[in-house]
Amino acid sequence: MGEDNKETKVVSDEGAPPKRGNTRFAFACAVLASMTTTVLGYDIGVMSGATIFIQKDLHISDVQVEVLVGIINLYSLIGSIAAGRTSDLIGRRYTIVLAAGIVFAGALLMGFATNYAFLMCGRFVAGVGVGYGVVIAPVYTAEISPASVRGFLTSFSEVFINFGILLGYVSNVAFSHFSLHIGWRLMLGVGAVPAVCLALGVLFMPESPRWLVLQGRLSDAAHVLDRLSATPEEAHLRLSEMKSSAGIPSDTTTANITPFPITNRGGSGVWKELFLHPTPAVRRVLISAFGIHFFQQASGIDSVVLYSPHVFQKSGLSSNNALLAMTVAVGLTKTIFILVATFLLDRIGRRPLLLASVGGMIFTLIGLGIGLTAAEHHEGKLVWAMGLCFSSILAFVAFFSIGLGPMPSVYCSEIFPMRLRAQGAAAGVVVNRVTSGIISMSFLSLYKAISIGGAFFLYAGVAAVGWVFFYGYFRETKGRTLEEMGKLFGFSKEEMEAEDDTMKTKEEGFGEAREMAAMAAL
């Protein structure tokens, strides 16, 4: 079977039909889907500067600022947990529409907030929408992308998070000159604009072909794959692999067979397979997914991005305009280097890029800790310490963006089997958001307890542990199809035989479907 697949994939230059450029269509769909994460990025970026004005206008404490900044990560858990099940039931496409609508409502509520409680209500609504978006965008993109460019296209969700962060920083500067009462409300309310653009763009997107296969809508899946693939042969091969992964016999016609049962249709039983009775292979996938999500956030990226004005202030910078200008430099650096990462993921590979990224983060965090410790123990401005802090922060976000930043969304959308993908990815995002919430809601208290330099030394230690974990546990997925991941993650021979037995049993159930399809064709 493996040799047949290889023969199908390798087509001579003479016999291959001309490519139709359909990767451009997949590119456009990935861009539209990834726009859902722009709102998360915008919220991260805009809140870092908006809190300066919110704290003055609403007279709130540092603890309330911490909660306001970080609580959206916990609110987003509701959307993240529900996203897998929702997308399995109504489809990836309509889940994106739902996410856009919720985010739109949340942004308007924050923009019209009159007090702290009202603002927290808006944060809750927006957080639920963000939770949906950060799960469904990479899943949808991975499911429409050919293996050769999947890393490139799936990393778009992280690209748009960084683009959103940059927009948030620019919004801080643009609206900082308005009155105290109006400026921060405009900063938050403008977040509704990307949601409107997304809702309109989704009208031109197809449904995920893998979701269509799981629903038994084989002819619809074949039509979508024909639009997404470079050649008819590639479309046929991808459909065959999807049917095999879903437990549908390969000789089943492309007629729709919705009335007949499909593996894990609607996501039923997935949570049990993931957490109650996982096989060793599924357990390894879970540990890989949870590990990369945890270390992405526990290494302190939110402390740098969300609290960059506070960090720059501690290094010796005092002017509000200068603080906001430096945050724009952080956002611009993140955006540039995440764009570099999109071109390297499918060329260099996931593993070497990740190890280089985390290694660089360790040294830049140590440099930042040294600079902040020196500045904290010196009266007045210490020029070399200030320069070290600025350069370390920019280098840190550059190293983060080139590897560890985009890797969780890319990697976790690849490694789960098709039947577990939506809810497995959702579980990974839950770990990500919980860790992010803890880090962002504790940073001010942490640096008051152990000093701001000590906080970044602590993050450097966490990153070092992460590097060891990735070196020993992380497996390369570059160039592999989503259906090939089972062998990579060590599914046993017994598990493969059990899957074969399951497919044989299912074939009997599909007999009637094939007969009906044949009658319909006549």
UniProtKB/TrEMBL annotation:
Belongs to the major facilitator superfamily. Sugar transporter (TC 2.A.1.1) family. The chain crosses the membrane at residues 25-45, 65-84, 96-118, 124-142, 149-170, 182-205, 285-307, 322-345, 352-370, 382-404, 425-444, 450-474. It is found in: Membrane. NCBIfam families: SP. The lineage of its organism: Eukaryota, Viridiplantae, Streptophyta, Embryophyta, Tracheophyta. One of its GO terms (molecular function) is symporter activity. GO terms for cellular component: membrane. This is Major facilitator superfamily (MFS) profile domain-containing protein. It comes from Dendrobium thyrsiflorum (Pinecone-like raceme dendrobium). Keywords: Membrane, Sugar transport, Symport, Transmembrane, Transmembrane helix, Transport. InterPro entries: MFS_dom, MFS_sugar_transport-like, MFS_trans_sf, STP/PLT_plant, Sugar/inositol_transpt, Sugar_transporter_CS.
